[in-house]
Design brief:
It contains five helices and eleven strands. Helix 2 runs antiparallel to helix 3.
């Protein structure tokens, strides 16, 4: 009753709307720490005895959706989606979209980090995102290790309330997420390096049009290329 409502409210504050599925012997514990980094939401979850789901009217329209990346660093989470079913552990990263159904069951205690990013923000650094489908990728691959290390460092800094350059951290996070996606089948094609450089140059120019020293020489220094 009221306890279920409180848990649903707590979960829904951080990762979109969630419904708690009643259990025969309910004994649920949810502790959440969070930090907003620009328009990214980082949460550190400590959960036990929870069975919850997102579906139906809780789902976002694709253009308004968020991509979530969850990493369980302690314990296990039983996971179910339209595409995958299995156990989320320290060996894997769950990539899920708020436009797609997902179900989570944590019978024992588990701790995990989640970062929530507007999918539109990925358009700055990725091309050819196939579709919004949930996936499991390895946390032990090169891209997975880099991403998990970055996520844990952000959580540690957030727990200490340390000041950071949020714009810089957000951009670094986007590039690490893009690198992780390229190692999965969520990107339909790898971005040509020359096209990537051109896109980055155009974005830099747009973001710095007010600078009086904006010039080909400045661009060359920033990107490590010749003026030509």
């Amino acid at each position: 009753g009221s306890e279920t409502n409180l848990i649903e409210t707590a979960l829904s504050r951080y990762n979109g709307s969630w419904a708690v599925i009643p259990q025969e012997a309910p004994s649920c514990r949810v502790a959440v720490g969070s930090r907003l980094i620009r328009d990214f939401l980082l949460t550190d979850m400590d959960v036990s005895g929870l069975h919850s789901a997102r579906d139906g009217a809780m789902l976002d329209r694709p253009k308004e959706a968020y991509i979530n990346l969850s990493y369980v660093y302690d314990g296990e989470v039983n996971l179910g989606t339209n595409e995958i079913a299995g156990v989320l552990s320290p060996d894997s990263i769950h990539i899920w979209f708020t436009s797609q159904p997902v179900e989570m069951h944590v019978p024992e205690r588990a701790k995990f980090l989640n970062i929530m990013i507007p999918t539109q923000r990925l358009s700055n650094v990725t091309h050819g995102l196939n579709n919004q489908k949930n996936a499991l990728v390895s946390a032990k691959s090169g891209g997975g290790l880099l991403f998990c290390s970055h996520l844990k460092s952000m959580a540690e800094i957030s727990s200490q309330s340390q000041e950071i350059d949020e714009g810089c951290v957000a951009e670094a996070t986007l590039h690490l997420v893009a690198n992780l996606l390229r190692s999965s089948d969520l990107l339909s094609e790898r971005l040509d390096p020359r096209q990537h450089l051109q896109d980055e140059l155009c974005r830099f120019i747009r973001d710095n049009l007010q600078q009086t020293d904006l010039s080909p020489a400045l661009l060359a220094r920033e990107f490590g290329v010749s003026v030509r």
